[in-house]
Write a structure and sequence with these properties.
The complex is a heterodimer of chains A (about 120) and B (about 110). Chain A is mainly beta. Helix content of chain A is about 0%, strand content about 50%. In chain A, strand 9 and strand 10 form a beta hairpin. Chain A starts with a strand and ends with a strand. Chain B is mainly beta and about 110 residues long. Helix content of chain B is about 0%, strand content about 50%. Chain B has no helices and 13 strands. In chain B, the strands form three sheets. In chain B, strands 2, 6, 7, 8, 11, 12 and 13 form a seven-stranded mixed beta sheet that branches. The chains are: A mainly beta (about 120), B mainly beta (about 110). The interface between A and B is medium-sized, with 21 and 22 residues.
Chain lengths: ~120, ~110
């Protein structure tokens, strides 16, 4: 079955950096677009970033442009999110998710359990 | 960015009764070239990731019970749970995926009365 497992979360000081990873299994990772969605504690969902199946195109919400970088290694079935210049408002659970094929951006049919990023001094 | 507004913010419904959640987008998400509404619904239970329920406004994801249905077009959409079950207590989000960035509604909490 499809599995997405995030890692790399933790407590970071403002201005710090983290790299989140999402290891995929149970499907042909290189055939699917992938996204990151975050959720601040007790709040709603916010789309963060997306990447095409081949890594050819990448998209970001305005609030993270220039600070976050999405990437993927299809040989390792792994999605990444490099997060730099962290701010308090970046504190959230970060979910990786698989897109339905056929349209971009697409609905997300499989989600990981999430990785918690806490920005605190 | 497209603003998605859900109503109500929360509702309490008795077991077996109907629950209705509304979602309004600030611009039409109907793509006239393919006549599809780029609107999806997710369910999220505490401590869990969201689960895809419905996409294209009315297409039920595989495995989703048929008591869940989606309707609407253009800017106004509805998620209906025809006969509420205990396991349906959750927060429900609509999301448009017509424009980038895709945007979510604020969520509607459904509780059992």
């Amino acid at each position: 079955q499809v599995q997405l497992v995030e890692s790399g979360g933790g407590v970071v000081q403002p201005g710090g950096s983290l790299r989140l990873s999402c290891v995929a299994s149970g499907f042909s990772f290189s055939s699917y677009g992938m996204q990151w969605v975050r959720q601040a504690p007790g709040k709603g969902l916010e789309w963060v970033s997306a990447i095409w199946h081949d890594g050819g195109n990448k998209y970001y919400v305005d609030s993270v442009k220039g600070r976050f970088t999405i990437s993927r290694d299809n040989s390792k079935n792994t999605l990444y999110l490099q997060i730099n210049s962290l701010r308090g408002e970046d504190t959230a659970v970060y979910f990786c998710a698989r897109e339905l094929p056929g349209v971009f951006p697409a609905p997300l049919d499989n989600w990981g359990q999430g990785a918690l990023v806490t920005v605190s001094s | 960015d497209i603003v998605m507004t859900q109503s109500p913010d929360s509702l309490a419904v008795s077991l077996g009764e109907r629950a209705t959640i509304n979602c309004k987008s600030s611009q039409s998400v109907l793509f006239t070239s393919d006549n599809r509404n780029y609107l999806t619904w997710y369910q999220q239970k505490p401590g869990q990731p969201p689960k895809l329920l419905i996409y294209w406004a009315s297409t039920r994801e595989s495995g989703v019970p048929d008591r869940f249905s989606g309707s609407g077009s253009g800017t106004d959409f509805t998620l209906t749970i025809s006969s509420l079950q205990a396991e349906d207590a959750a927060v429900y989000y609509c999301q448009q995926y017509y424009f980038t960035p895709p945007t979510f509604g604020q969520g509607t909490r459904v509780e059992i009365k």
